[in-house]
Amino acid sequence: MSLRCVYTDLDGTLLGAGASLFADHEGGFSMMQARALEACHRAGVEVVIMSGRRRVQVHEDSRLIGQSSFIFEAGSAFHLDGETFMTTGDFAHEDGVTLVEQVSARGVPDLLLEHFEGRFEYHEPWHLDREMSHLFRGEVDTAEANRLLEENGHGDLRLLDNGAIRRKMCGIEVTHVYHLVARGASKATAVAAHAKARGYDREQTIAVGDSLEDLEVADSVGRFFMVANGPERDAGVEQALSSFPNATVTEGRAGDGFYEAVITSLMT
After folding, report:
1. How many H helices and E strands in the chain?
2. Within 106-186, where are the H helices?
3. What share of residues in the chain are helix, strand, coil (percent, to 5)?
4. Which of 105, 158, 206, 227 has the fewest CB atoms within 10 Å, i.e. is most exposed?
5. SS3 call for 183
């Protein structure tokens, strides 16, 4: 069955060092991502960005690569041909109030920041102007965080790990980015919803990423490609790979890995 859609993470996957489309993982100039995007265009394959970034950021990135669909704020919603669809499960939205505002009013960010003091902070300045998810950085146990949420009456939310970043924090070996989202929200859920809306069979889709949250998308696509820098930076990714039989680790890092995933799939 021919490939019809590629779902891709941005930072550390489609984008190289410095969040550049034209940089490799080490920061050298590269055309690999552009060549892969060109190959998709020539083959009539849609490319859908799935990112933790805000709507406006992902919208602009999607426009730059000539696409009309994108998934934003860690799978809390997706945009399809001018219309936005929420993928927040059973979370009770209040009219005229963003999810971020609702969660702030309940004091949930303060609960997490106090509990994990010294290991957890807002991911400044990218935590500002968000609609669907609070954004943090640090090094915490998400299972512990989610038990804390449940015990304090916030079981409709969850903290998810969106992967390791280069940013350094005092006393932390590898800093991760975390999203506080509605419990039903995930990149995997948004990918499945987008594919259904487009009429894609699972075997007609692939996904490429570098984090544990990305890896869970393997359940929603025919094949998942983990770029090499993912397990290199996060031992948890390497440990989880065996649970997803359709997941493959690329030889290349970041954009090189993205190119490898696309060309391999187009040739299959």
Report:
1. 10, 12
2. 108-115, 142-151
3. 40, 25, 40
4. 105
5. coil
Q: What is the CA radius of gyration of the chain?
A: 18
Q: Which two tokens stand for residue 13?
A: 């996957």
Q: Fold for domain 5-87+186-267?
A: Rossmann fold (3.40.50)
Give pLDDT tens digits for 68-106: 999 999 999 999 999 999 999 999 999 999 999 999 999
For the beta sheet containing 5-8, the strands, ordered from the edge strand earlier in sequence to the opposite edge, are: 83-86, 77-80, 69-72, 46-50, 5-8, 205-209, 223-226, 247-249
- State how far Cα 95 lies from the chain centre: 27
For residue 41, give both structure tokens. Answer: 């265009």
Strand, helix or coil for residue 6: strand
Residue pLDDT, tens place only, 177-204:
999 999 999 999 999 999 999 999 999 9
Cis check: omega of the bond before 125, within 30 degrees of 0 = yes
Is 34:20 a contact under the CB 8 Å cutoff? no
Q: Which two tokens stand for residue 260?
A: 């490898």
Q: Domain extents for the chain?
A: 5-87+186-267, 99-182
28-60 tens-digit pLDDT: 999 999 999 999 999 999 999 999 999 999 999
User: What digits encode the pLDDT tens for the residues 118-152?
Assistant: 999 999 999 999 999 999 999 999 999 999 999 99
- Checking if the pLDDT of 235 tops 90, the result is no
- Geometric angle at alpha carbon 161, from 74 and 104, rounded to 5°: 65
